[in-house]
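Hi support team,

I've been running sequence recovery on a batch of backbones for a student project. Most finish fine, but this one hangs at about 90% for roughly twenty minutes before it completes. I'm not sure whether the input is malformed or the queue is just slow. I've pasted the structure tokens below so you can try to reproduce it. Let me know if you need the job ID as well.

Thanks,
M.K.
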């Protein structure tokens, strides 16, 4: 893929590009808690979006997607026309933010090629935003720190309409081969944790129900429910600033005051924060059974309390429970579609996973897809 992209860039522009890799991410545990000051445990994986780029000594930024065979051009002197299109709006948002922040952006040519499935909960948009930003940062020596790049990329998502947390951008920028990032979203510090999976591995099953978090309002609505729960609780417990400060005792005391939606969302978040701690301890003890158990519990919480699963993902997790070689599974990412994450014994995995795919096809008429993944480094310049 790298050679193909480099060569097509050379053929088009007659110049050797700089090459950059921007990865997709998974999240072991800590779902829908990043925007609640919680703790998460993502990792970058070996699915990626590649960028080839070079200055073009003009005031125009040209970006081509080789996957979609389409392109967008942005005139830095006249950005007023909003670019329609699935990925062009992210690029435009980033350019706008950089210009507003006073960066001296010049023209560039950029081609992209990748293998991150869209709408599968692997954060293709964070890979796009962080990758494009990092390319610009490299090309014009802006010296923006990785952390700042993450905030700008998050800001671009918010501008487009998704009021997301920082987990995805963080994973894409700070990922490390074979390590999970134990990120504390309250003080934005992280620790790397290495998980020895022994005879097991993590495999994704794509339900092929695509989600578009920014088009559907459910993600922003869930965030609002969590925030309004905090506001109501804080009226009685003034020290509470986020759901991280709320425990189950406080929550029980508030049960008659909170709406059902506020209560069940807060309950999920409080329990998920506990599970992240338990998984961090289990990683240190190499206790895979506990990790698997927590994955099942998280799915239950996301499906029943938080309400962001789908019938299809519930079915995939139920199927996983019937397979002896799968010791944990859950839906992963924002929800309402995308992948399940499965902790599965490597021996015979093809037989087991194909059996699940067949049952899924019979039940839903949908062909799910299996992604074998490896935990990989975050954004990197490749040459
Ligand atoms: C999306 C968001 C993240 C996070 C997850 C759910 O991927 O971009 O910030 O909230 O959903 O954990």
């Amino acid at each position: 893929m790298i050679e193909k992209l480099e060569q097509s860039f050379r053929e088009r522009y007659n110049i050797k590009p700089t090459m950059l890799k921007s990865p997709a991410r998974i999240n072991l545990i800590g779902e829908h808690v990043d925007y609640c000051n919680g703790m998460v445990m993502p990792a970058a994986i070996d699915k990626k979006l590649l960028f080839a780029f070079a200055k073009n000594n003009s005031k125009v930024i040209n970006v081509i997607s080789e996957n979609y065979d389409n392109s967008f051009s942005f005139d830095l002197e006249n950005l007023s026309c909003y670019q329609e299109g699935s990925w062009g709006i992210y690029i435009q948002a980033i350019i706008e933010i950089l210009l507003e922040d006073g960066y001296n952006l010049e023209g560039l040519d950029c081609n992209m090629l990748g293998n991150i499935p869209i709408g599968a909960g692997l954060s293709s948009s964070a890979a796009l935003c962080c990758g494009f930003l990092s390319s610009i940062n490299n090309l014009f020596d802006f010296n923006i720190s990785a952390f700042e790049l993450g905030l700008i990329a998050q800001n671009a998502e918010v501008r487009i309409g998704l009021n997301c947390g920082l987990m995805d951008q963080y994973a894409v920028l700070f990922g490390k081969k074979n390590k999970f990032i134990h990120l504390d979203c309250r003080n934005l510090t992280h620790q790397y944790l290495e998980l020895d999976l022994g005879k097991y591995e993590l495999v994704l099953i794509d339900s092929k129900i695509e989600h578009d978090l920014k088009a559907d309002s459910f993600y922003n609505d869930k965030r609002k429910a969590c925030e309004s729960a905090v506001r109501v609780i804080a009226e009685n417990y003034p020290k509470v600033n986020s759901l991280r400060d709320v425990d189950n005792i406080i929550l029980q005391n508030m049960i008659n005051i909170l709406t059902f939606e506020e209560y069940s969302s807060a309950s999920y978040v409080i329990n998920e924060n506990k599970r992240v701690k338990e998984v961090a301890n289990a990683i240190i003890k190499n206790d895979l059974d506990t990790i698997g158990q927590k994955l099942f519990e998280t799915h239950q919480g996301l499906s029943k309390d938080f309400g962001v699963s789908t019938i299809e993902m519930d079915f995939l997790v139920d199927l996983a429970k019937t397979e002896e070689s799968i010791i944990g599974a859950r839906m992963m990412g924002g929800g309402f579609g995308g992948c399940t994450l499965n902790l599965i014994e490597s021996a015979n995995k093809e037989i087991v996973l194909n059996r699940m795919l067949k049952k899924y096809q019979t039940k839903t008429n949908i062909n799910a897809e299996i992604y074998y993944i490896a935990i990989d480094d975050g954004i990197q310049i490749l040459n």
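--
Follow-up from support: It reproduced on our side and the slowdown came from queue contention, not your input. DSSP finds eleven helices and 13 strands in the chain. No action needed from you.
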